[in-house]
């Protein structure tokens, strides 16, 4: 029997990856805190949070963004998903010998612009260069510290039966944008990544609806996988109404052509918001009032359930399981 | 397309279906895309009492026999070979390993959306031998035939195809002999665009109504209604619900290309065994593009996974949950059989969309 090896599917954000993290990382490095959220609380009062994220997207420039913008957004959004405002970021670069310096400059300019938009600065960093062929262009890792406002307590484990599930806009844009350049696909209207820092939008949301229970940015594995993670962490069921989930027409059409389901395609500028019924309306209005949340919508409800699961009510009124991602093969989307 | 997904239209159809005085019937969909559409839109909920839908041998990855999968994986071990395949094949367990595992151990595996991408890869990598895995039915075979013609035109001596193509109508005829007890067939839309609806006439002549249909909810429900009507009226004909795309004669151009590049041959199917005249091999004129002839490899002795009942699932003898491995030893994450790996497989569709029923 040959030795067990890392497969590309271990990086797809789905079940295999969850199992690898549990078995290899949590088993050896776990702190005893329940894992599952993207940011860790690191201070006694739980106000300070810390997160990190690596970026290997290919190609490094894509419609609507680039690896630099993505690296800032990814970490800022993980902090935002903890309800935190970003305080400081770090950035590490692994560069391949031969990378064109002006491309690197474009990437870092883009990082600076995005950080400014998010109201945060990159305060430290590191650079390594590896021989040609041992990396592909450049890889970026960012880490970030954030602070949670008093009165806010969001967690993936916080969803309660009766809560309302919202999403801050259309799903599937980022994954399709990267895929369409990579595969040289052209559509009538170009598909642009939704890559954006959500700190401002989340700040406004939490001011209007401080009782929000869960925030989660549905990146790899898409909306469906993120909802399943929340259901599992919170020990609840969810019903999502298929026709209520906003999907851009071009994205829907392209997904159909490629045999993909937009509910499983990555986003980089969207937030899932789960709010108690009493605050749902305030949350929706606050999202819609922000330029990054104009297309926000209520998409479902949290339910009591003997075991965690997400069901989808189809346009026909029939029901089916909305499972998390299994083995879709879209490597290097972020 | 959206009109065929129109909620009102589909609900209306479902209402009509429910009111139909239909006899109990077992209908088989012979196409993986239908299997997925039925599960994804929850169409079983919309059927009249006593009407049952079962899946047939219509998933390209699923019907490919174990030894052909093992042979393809073994070709990846040949120095300088780059394997090109549709993505669904990557995770199918071979006897000793899957392509995914072979890739992690160093095999060169390229996932493509079209066989023409494999031809391009051969042109771009003259130092490599690119081998494409030709699986699937009359739908994918024309694209593979065109890819071979293109490789010939460009004189690409480093492109070849492992040909495992299958034909749908012979498989349907074989199912008539089995104990499955199918009362009527929902026939594949895409395949029929190529071969034409006339291809099912021998099946209808044996007393089993056939309706060719598309992949939207309204298409599938419309086909069910047409089949139930035929059964109620004691008719057995080939009808076309999918008339916006399918003609009686099919697509003569595609048929001409198929006839040029391939020759009809006996083929082995997972679950059905060897069926006469049910597949394609490369015509003698194109033998040089046959990977099975170009390379000499010794694949491991193929063994079907223990306990796996994909064969019975593929022929409609059992529903996926009746397999003792379903959802326990066999999940999309850790698949044992091909029907759980492929996105068009009956087991994966059942697992993803219906498993807690």
Based on the coordinates given, report the CATH architecture of the largest domain in chain B: 3-Layer(aba) Sandwich
CATH topology tier name of the largest domain in chain B: Rossmann fold
Order of strands in the sheet with most strands of chain B: 2-1-7-8-9
The CATH C-level class name of the largest domain in chain A: Alpha Beta
- What is the top-level CATH class of the largest domain in chain B? Alpha Beta
Give the mean pLDDT of chain B.
Answer: 92
**Helicity of chain B, in percent?**
25-40%
Determine the fraction of residues in helical runs of chain A and give it as a percent range. Answer: 25-40%
Task: Specify the biggest β-sheet of chain B.
Answer: 5 strands, parallel
Overall geometry of chain A: globular
Q: What is the succession of H and E elements of chain A?
A: HEEEEHEHEEEHHEHEHEHEEE
Give helix and strand order of chain B, one letter per element, not per position.
HEHEHHEHEHEHEHEHHEHEHEEHHHH
Radius of gyration of chain A: 19 Å
Alpha-carbon Rg of chain B, integer: 20 Å
- What is the rounded distance between the termini of chain B? 30 Å
Biggest beta sheet attributes of chain A: 7 strands, mixed
Oligomer: heterodimer
Give the tally of structural domains of chain A: 2
Low-pLDDT runs of chain B: none
Structural class by helix and strand composition of chain B:
alpha/beta
């Amino acid at each position: 029997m040959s030795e067990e090896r890392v497969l590309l599917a271990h990086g797809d954000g789905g079940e295999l990856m969850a199992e690898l993290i549990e078995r290899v990382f949590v088993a050896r490095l776990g702190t005893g805190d329940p894992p599952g959220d993207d940011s860790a609380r690191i201070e006694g009062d739980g106000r300070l949070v810390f997160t990190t994220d690596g970026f290997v997207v290919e190609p490094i420039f894509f419609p609507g963004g680039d690896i630099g913008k993505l690296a800032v957004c990814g970490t800022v959004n993980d902090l935002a998903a903890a309800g935190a405002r970003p305080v400081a970021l770090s950035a590490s670069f692994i560069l391949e010998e031969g990378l064109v310096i002006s491309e690197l400059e474009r990437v870092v300019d883009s990082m600076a612009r995005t950080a400014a938009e998010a109201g945060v600065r990159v305060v430290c960093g590191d650079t390594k260069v590896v021989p040609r062929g041992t990396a592909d262009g450049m890889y970026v890792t960012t880490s970030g510290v954030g602070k949670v406002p008093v009165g806010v307590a969001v967690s993936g484990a916080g969803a309660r039966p009766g809560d309302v599930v919202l999403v801050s806009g259309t799903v599937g844009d980022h994954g399709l944008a990267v895929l369409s350049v990579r595969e040289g696909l052209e559509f009538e209207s170009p598909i642009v990544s939704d890559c954006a820092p959500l700190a401002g939008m989340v700040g406004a949301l939490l001011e209007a609806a401080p009782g929000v229970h869960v925030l989660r940015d549905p990146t790899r594995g898409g909306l469906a996988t993120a909802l399943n993670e929340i259901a599992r962490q919170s020990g609840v069921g969810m019903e999502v109404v298929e026709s209520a989930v906003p999907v851009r027409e071009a994205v829907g059409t392209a997904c159909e052509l490629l045999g993909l389901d937009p509910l499983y395609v990555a986003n980089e500028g969207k937030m899932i918001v789960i709010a108690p019924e009493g605050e749902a309306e305030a949350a929706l209005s606050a999202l819609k009032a922000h330029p990054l949340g104009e297309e926000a919508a209520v998409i479902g409800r949290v339910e009591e359930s003997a075991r965690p699961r997400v069901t989808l009510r189809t346009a026909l009124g029939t029901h089916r399981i909305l499972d998390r991602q299994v083995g879709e093969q879209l490597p290097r989307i972020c | 397309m959206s009109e065929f997904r129109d909620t009102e239209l589909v609900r209306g159809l479902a209402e009509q279906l429910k009111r139909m005085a239909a006899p109990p019937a077992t209908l088989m969909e012979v196409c993986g895309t239908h299997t997925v559409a039925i599960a994804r839109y929850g169409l079983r909920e919309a059927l009249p009492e006593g009407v049952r839908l079962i899946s047939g041998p219509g998933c390209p990855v699923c019907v490919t026999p174990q030894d052909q999968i093992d042979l393809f994986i073994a070709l990846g071990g040949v120095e300088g070979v780059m394997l090109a395949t549709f993505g669904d094949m990557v995770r199918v367990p071979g006897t000793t390993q899957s392509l995914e595992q072979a890739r992690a151990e160093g095999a060169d595996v390229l996932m493509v959306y079209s066989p023409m991408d494999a031809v391009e890869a051969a042109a771009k990598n003259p130092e490599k031998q690119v081998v494409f895995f030709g699986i699937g039915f009359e739908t994918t075979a024309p694209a593979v035939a065109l890819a071979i013609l293109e490789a010939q035109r460009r004189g690409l001596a480093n492109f070849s195809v492992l040909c495992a193509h299958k034909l749908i109508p012979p498989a349907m005829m074989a199912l008539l002999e089995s104990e499955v007890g199918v009362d009527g067939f929902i026939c594949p839309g895409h395949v029929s665009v190529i071969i034409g609806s006339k291809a099912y006439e021998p099946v209808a002549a044996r007393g089993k109504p056939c309706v060719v249909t598309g992949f939207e909810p309204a298409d599938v429900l419309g086909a069910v209604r047409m089949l139930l009507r035929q059964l109620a009226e004691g008719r057995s004909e080939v009808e076309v619900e999918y008339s916006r795309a399918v003609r009686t004669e099919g697509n003569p151009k595609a048929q001409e290309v198929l006839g040029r590049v391939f020759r009809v041959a006996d083929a082995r199917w997972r679950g059905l065994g060897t069926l006469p005249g049910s597949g394609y091999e490369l015509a003698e004129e194109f033998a040089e593009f046959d990977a099975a002839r170009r390379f000499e490899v010794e694949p491991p002795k193929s063994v079907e996974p223990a306990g796996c009942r994909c064969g019975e699932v593929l022929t409609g003898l059992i529903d996926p949950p009746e397999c003792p491995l379903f959802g326990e030893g066999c999940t999309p994450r850790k698949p044992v059989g091909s029907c759980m790996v492929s996105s068009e497989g009956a087991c994966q569709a059942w697992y993803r969309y219906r498993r807690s029923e």
